[in-house]
Amino acid sequence: MKGIFYYLNRVINRTGEAARCYMTVHANPGVVERDGRLNIRKNVVLEIREGGRLKTGKGTVTIQNGCRIVVENGGELDIGDDVGINSNCYIAVHNRVSIGNNTIFGPGVVVVDQDHDYRDPGGLKAEKYRVGTVTIGNNVWIGANAVILRGSIIEDNSVIGAGSVVKGHVQKGSVYINGR
Questions:
Q1: Annotated catalytic, 94?
Q2: How far is CA 45 from CA 10, 66, 123, 173, in A?
């Protein structure tokens, strides 16, 4: 654990000075790889389980207040350059989630690459999951409270409207809005 806390003490804030981190971290040394600047705000929970991996790009990645990011054993979360993850977002990774460059998440966005396998003979109590991947391209804007589900691909230059639920493929340059 010493390695991860040393890393967190070197997080840089907007002014370029070392920032105090107000976050809960459960991770093993060496599982966080970063090439650029990582700005982490207050009350962020970052859980990287043994065998999980978080990698950030060469630009700045900002994770705002109240976010929770969980990378399970064997999971991989790749975050590109200059990504903004707004307040109260939740990202859960059992397999693989990739977030492209210059992508912005509105507040309350949820990204999950797994579903509970309710068809398992043990039901939900068995805690079995169906896992897949989530790929979010470059220059994507995801509006407040959108939910991105297992197996989704959002291509470059797309906009996901606030409150939308995405399950499937969003074509390049699309504006995706769920009708109610």
A1: no
A2: 17, 7, 29, 32
